[in-house]
Amino acid sequence: MNSRPDLTGRLISVVGRRVSAANEDWRGRWLSYLPTVAFLVLATIAAVTSDAFLSQGNLSNLFRQIVTNGLVSLGMLTVILSAGIDLSVGSIVALAGIVAAGLLNILPWPLAIPLAVGVAMIAGGINGTLVAGFRLPPFVATLATMSAIRGFVYVVSETPITPTDMTFGRIVASSVGPVPTPAIFMICCFMVVSLFLSRTTMGRAIYAIGGNEEAVRLSGINVRAHIMLAYLISGLFAGLAGVILASRVGIAQPSVGSGLELDAIAACVIGGASLAGGRGSVRGTFAGVLLLGLISNLLNLYNVQAYYQQIFKGALIVLAVLARRREG
Amino acid sequence: MSQADAPAPVPTAPRLEMRGISKRYDATRALRGVDLVVQPGEIHAIAGENGAGKSTLIKVLAGAVARDAGTIKIDGLETELPSPHAAHQAGIRVVYQEFSLVPHLSVAENILLGQLPSRAGGMWIDWKAAARLASAALDSLGFDVPNVRRPVESLPVSQRQMVEIAKAMLERPRILVLDEPSAVLSGGDLDRLFNAVRALRDAGTTVLYVSHRLDEVFQIASRITVLKDGGLVGTVDSASIDQPGLVRMMVGRELAEIYPARSASVGEPVLRVRNLSRSRAFREVNLDLAPGEILGVFGLVGSGRTDVVRAIFGADASTGEMTLDGRPYRPRSPGDALSQGVAMLSEDRARDGLVLQLSLRDNLSLASFSRMSRLGVISKSQQRALVTDEIAEVGIRAPSINALVRRLSGGNQQKVVVGKWLLRGARVLLLDEPTRGVDVGAKADIYRIIASLAERGKAILLVSSELPEILGMSDRILVMRGGRLVGEFSRHEATEERLLAAAAGVVEGAAA
Asked: Using an 8 Å Cβ cutoff, are A291 and A35 in contact?
């Protein structure tokens, strides 16, 4: 199957792509840049009105802070595309942190960190089993595991754990030039997931399942396996976020991460994802993560109370959805 | 405008007078100065291909779409109809193809939505009275919906349509619009609907009947307005025109050109089915299907024809024996059937065949990822080449391979499903109502594709409730009734009367 497609076919499809970009989806495309535009506008305003915003310390702080939500949102997007939802990500973040901190006291970090992420993926696998295997509604299944996993974290350790081996913590705290290492890692994850969703058979199947599960099943694709995969991916990224968060703070709290699921869902929705499934993009989600991070950073700089940040966040979600309302 | 201050209707005016209605969506002119004049107590058909503008015209009348130009008069009084609510107030009720029912609520609640009978000063719903009223409404139409307390989602599509119609009729509207009701009703139910519609007309309701099925249009309507490409072709008395004439108005070509000429050379059976049964669906079905053959299966809604096809495709469990090329064939899933070269095209392509919000490229690829990927990574160039070839093979008309499937017409959507299976390399094609909801022009395209598939040695099982389609396309015809095969006819033996008699269980000769 290495034959080059004939030239006419290539031409037709290339021209076709231009035409479609030009008129068919111009509105959708314009809207998909809306969060990015909003981010740039806000960043410009911030740069002009606040001296502190552009300081090296603040920017690197901003990037460190969005890593957690960025990674969790990637997993959330995958699940949302499959027409699901994962409410348990906050609990999984805490689980991975506690397990990593505990293991770091008995194992070297190259073993402890993957093991902790593996435990997070097991939690994702449980979600996948409940949704794909037992056919529970995703909201109900992950609501149950959100509670159960949180409980399990407290069973493992009621008190915060401080890892003694700080090697991994130093990696997380390091920077490549001006950019924090975890932020670079996060951006790499976004690129990988973007390729996964657009270029692999599994990624396209997940999109298609969210659009019309029955059509995908009748196309001979294993729907359950792909739904399972989506929850495993969500567990993976929540786990990564958990170990990075615990290492950044230098302590693993059993209470950490509650409410993270809402931030992740917010980032996906602001980025254009449909909670009905089948629609959403990695680029949009990235912009959603940046925008949410920027807003809380700005409001911190201006010393605005955290409660107002939540009001802003809510308003932003409503605005993002309203802006897309007219799209076909 | 409230009805109380409305001046008295002008006695001689038409019930509905739409003049110069225009509507543009972006670059597409959906309606170009269409006139529609309907007299009180008339049953008036609106005919035209899909994309002719029928739906848009109806949506304008229903207040769901704002017109760009034109006037609407009801009983001689100019009306704006800015919203569905306003249209409702004006006495216009539309029964759409896509149902507007609440799936989780019961039949009775749906029929009486907004006017449920209550007791104790409106506090408590009187469920007994509600059930009685809903049953009475269905009975008066002659529709058989056994239990009005069941949720609507548990009903088959045909019964949901009955509920929808009963709901609309209960309100005794001034203008009732029925949008393609025969898409899901067939045989006796359609006859009962027609009787109910005539009774409603006699009681003074004006009925607009939208359909692309010509025989129905002639059966029910006294006048016909024909649209084409968003423009008005004309309004004619149904008595003054025949079917070929109407087709000429609709598509500008002859009826005879719709079914392609075929020379079937049938070989040894590739698929053998013996004693295939599924409880409560069908029993002891036997059939042989050969390469190059088109085997028609005719039956009324509920005869089990779709269930048989789903079982052969492995979508539902069944008992019995099947062989493919002489080897045992026991599909456990659609994937299993597909890997052995058996593909299905379902009657509800939006539900079973397509992912509407994805592109043409994605939809065509969905069943054939293994042909265009290595280690799970899709090769864009291979995919583009395969998809572009397939688009040419089945003649899909789309602006690009990245066009969203939901923006394609019904006929082109159906071609996408056919193309998907051909790309997968299917040898046995199970076609369940392949032209449902497809306009006459695209129908001819699909028939041409089916015929050329048979020429190239594919074995084709064609399930349809449209007699002309079965008669025009099949080499042999099986008839199903009540979950059993009740007759087999060769192409030469088969006539509309014989097939209908077998499907309805009428002893031949006694019916005449």
From this structure: yes
Domain identity same for B323 and B440: yes
Contacts of B132 (CB under 8 A, 6+ apart): none
pLDDT over 70 for what percent of chain B? 90
Residue after which a domain boundary falls, among B133, B151, B172: B172
Average pLDDT for chain B:
84
Global pTM?
Answer: 0.69
Give me the residue from B358, B380, B402 closest to A208, CB to CB: B358
CB atoms within 10 A of CB B272: 18
Of residues A19, A207, A208, nearest to B400 (C-beta):
A19
Q: To which residue do tokens 């090697």 refer?
A: A167
Domain limits at B145?
102-172
CATH number, domain of B480, equals 3.40.50.300
A2 phi and psi, to 5 degrees?
-105, 10
The complex scores an ipTM of 0.71
User: What is the least distance, in Å, from the CA of B38 to any CA of chain A?
Assistant: 33
Give which of B93, B111, B100 is closest to B172, Cα–Cα: B93
Clarify whether residues B290 and B144 are in a common domain. no
Show which of residues 405-434 on chain B sit within 8 Å of chain A, judged by CB atoms.
406-407, 420, 424
Cα(A268)–Cα(A138) distance, integer angstroms:
17
> How far does CA A187 lie from the centroid of its chain?
11
Q: What angle do CA B215, B216, B217 make, to 5 degrees?
A: 95
* Kind plus residue range of the DSSP H or E element containing A239: helix A223-249
- Write down the residue that tokens 């939690």 correspond to: A123
B382 touches chain A (CB under 8 A): yes
Q: Is residue B303 part of a domain?
A: yes
Length of chain B: 512
Q: Which residues of A touch B377 (CB under 8 A)?
A: 199-201
Q: Which two tokens stand for residue B295?
A: 């085997």
Q: How many CB atoms lie within 10 A of CB B451?
A: 19
Residues B27 and B71 in one domain: yes
B residues 295..334 contacting A (CB < 8 A): 313, 315, 333-334
**Residue A179, token pair as written in the block:** 């950019």
CA distance B191 to chain A (A): 33
Q: Which of B313, B346, B384 sits opposite A5 (nearest CB)?
A: B384
- The Cα of B185 is separated from the nearest Cα of chain A by a number of Å equal to 23
Single residue among B253, B282, B297 that ends a domain in this structure: B253
pLDDT at A66: 94
Say yes or no for a CB contact (<8 Å) between A4 and B362. Answer: no
Query: Is residue A98 over pLDDT 80?
Result: yes
